[in-house]
TrEMBL record:
HAMAP family: IspH. Gene3D superfamilies: 3.40.50.11270, 4-hydroxy-3-methylbut-2-enyl diphosphate reductase, catalytic domain. This is Unannotated protein. One of its GO terms (biological process) is dimethylallyl diphosphate biosynthetic process. GO terms for molecular function: 4 iron, 4 sulfur cluster binding; 4-hydroxy-3-methylbut-2-enyl diphosphate reductase activity; metal ion binding. It comes from freshwater metagenome. Pfam families: LYTB. Keywords: 4Fe-4S, Iron, Iron-sulfur, Metal-binding. Its cofactor is [4Fe-4S] cluster. InterPro entries: LytB/IspH (IPR003451). CDD domains: lytB_ispH. The lineage of its organism: unclassified sequences, metagenomes, ecological metagenomes. Signal peptide: none annotated.
C-alpha cells in the first residue's frame, strides 16, 4: 500500500497572526515582563503557552491589569468600550488587532453613521464578532450560520448591509448571504470581501486535497474559528475523516487503519514547528512521502502597531 502525505500550502501563520505574536515578543523585550494581554493574542494553545513562558500574562478583561501597566489587545480586535476602560485605568495600550479586522470595524462605523442596520455574519460569543459589533451598539445584528440567516428579523424600513467575521467558511458565508438576499432583496454587499485572504487560501488548498484524502489532519486549536472551518471544509469536499489537533501526540494509531493518503494543513494561528512534529509522527508510521499541494503564494506583511514602533524607535531598536 502506497502511503503518502499531501501537505497544504499555504498553511499556518498569516500576516495578522505573525504581527500579533511579534508584537507581544517585542513588547516584552522593550518594556520587560510582565506584559499583559487581553484575551488570547491568537487562538492557539501552544502560542499562548510559549508567550506565558516569556512573561506575558493573559487576562480576560482590562480590569485585571494593574493601573498604569502595558496591555496588548489581541489580533481579534476590541470594541471602543474596551479602549475607554483601558484609558480609565491609565493603561498603556498596544493594539495588535489584525488590519483586516480593523477594516471590518471601519465598515461598521461607516454604515452605522448612515443609519443602516448591519447584519454581521459570524459566531455568537467570538471575540472578533463582539469587538466588531461593539463599534455600533444597537445597530448590529449577529447572523450565526444558515439558521441565523433564516431567522434574523431586522428593523422594518431600515437600510440593510451584510458584513462578516473574517475567519468563516467562504462557502457557508455565501449560502447565508444567498438566504439574506432572498429574504431582503435590497440588502447591500460590503465594499469588498470581509473573509480574510489567509482563511480563503487555506480553505482552497484543503479543497484540492480533500477528495484524494482518506484522512485529513488539521493542526489548530478548538477555539480557532479558521482551524475548525478547515476540518469542516475537508469533510465537505470529500475527505473520509478529518481531525483537529493541537499536538502530534494526539494522533491515534487506529486512525491509520486502511489509510493510504493523508492530507495535512494548519490554521492561520499555528506555528510551523507543530506541523513538522505531525509530519515526523506520520513518517514514523510509514507516511514519509510528502507532496506539497500549493493553492497560491502569499507574501503579505503588516507593519507592527504604530505605538510599539514609536517606542522601539525611541529606544534605538
Amino acid at each position: 500500500m502506497a502511503k503518502r502525505v499531501l501537505l497544504a500550502a499555504p498553511r499556518g501563520y498569516c500576516a495578522g497572526v505573525d504581527r500579533a505574536v511579534v508584537t507581544v515578543e517585542k513588547a516584552l523585550a522593550l518594556y520587560g515582563a510582565p506584559v499583559y494581554v487581553r484575551k488570547q493574542i491568537v487562538h492557539n494553545v501552544h502560542v499562548v503557552a510559549s508567550l506565558e513562558a516569556k512573561g506575558a500574562i493573559f487576562v480576560d478583561e482590562t480590569s485585571e491589569v494593574p493601573e498604569g501597566k502595558t496591555v496588548v489587545f489581541s489580533a481579534h480586535g476590541v470594541a471602543p468600550l474596551v479602549h475607554e476602560q483601558a484609558a480609565a485605568r491609565s493603561l498603556k495600550t498596544i493594539d495588535a488587532t489584525c488590519p483586516l479586522v480593523t477594516k471590518v470595524h471601519n465598515e461598521v462605523k461607516r454604515f452605522a453613521a448612515e443609519d443602516a442596520e448591519i447584519l454581521l455574519i459570524g459566531h455568537h460569543g467570538h471575540e472578533e464578532v463582539e469587538g466588531t459589533a461593539g463599534e455600533a451598539v444597537g445597530q448590529v445584528r449577529i447572523v450565526d450560520g444558515l439558521d441565523g440567516a433564516r431567522e434574523v428579523q431586522p428593523t422594518p424600513g431600515k437600510k440593510l448591509i451584510w458584513l462578516s467575521q473574517t475567519t468563516l467558511s467562504v462557502d457557508e458565508t455565501m449560502q447565508a448571504v444567498a438566504i439574506l438576499k432572498d429574504r431582503f432583496p435590497g440588502i447591500q454587499d460590503p465594499p469588498s470581501d470581509d473573509i480574510c485572504y489567509a482563511t480563503q487560501n487555506r480553505q482552497e488548498a484543503i479543497k484540492t486535497i480533500a477528495p484524494q484524502a482518506d484522512l485529513v489532519i488539521v493542526v489548530g486549536s478548538q477555539n480557532s474559528s479558521n482551524s475548525v472551518r478547515l476540518a469542516e471544509v475537508a469533510l465537505e469536499y470529500g475527505a473520509k475523516v478529518s481531525h483537529l489537533i493541537d499536538y502530534a501526540e494526539e494522533i491515534q494509531e487506529h486512525w491509520f487503519a486502511g489509510v493510504e493518503t493523508i492530507g495535512v494543513t494548519s490554521g492561520a494561528s499555528v506555528p510551523e514547528i507543530l506541523v513538522k512534529d505531525v509530519l515526523a509522527t506520520l513518517a514514523d508510521h510509514g507516511f514519509s512521502d510528502v507532496e506539497v499541494i500549493t493553492a497560491t503564494e502569499e507574501s503579505l506583511l503588516f507593519a507592527l502597531p504604530p505605538e510599539l514602533r514609536k517606542d522601539m524607535k525611541a529606544a534605538g531598536i
